[in-house]
Sequence to fold (57 residues):
Amino acid sequence: MQTAYLYSFKDLAKRFVASLKRLDDLRLTKMLESINLNPNYITEAYDLKAEIQSVTD
Fold:
């Protein structure tokens, strides 16, 4: 079950980050470069969520 949640979240996160990159904002793109979009564990997915939230806030 955890694997399904993880892959579903990864898909959503990748799409969201791709949408942000299309805004063509250099500062935003630099912030997104360091984000790992391939978490292997659910705990890493929570970290990914926090990183994405900090970019969008």
Summary: The chain is about 75% helix and 0% strand. The radius of gyration is 11 Å. The CA atoms of residues 39 and 45 lie 5 Å apart. Residues 2-56 form one domain.
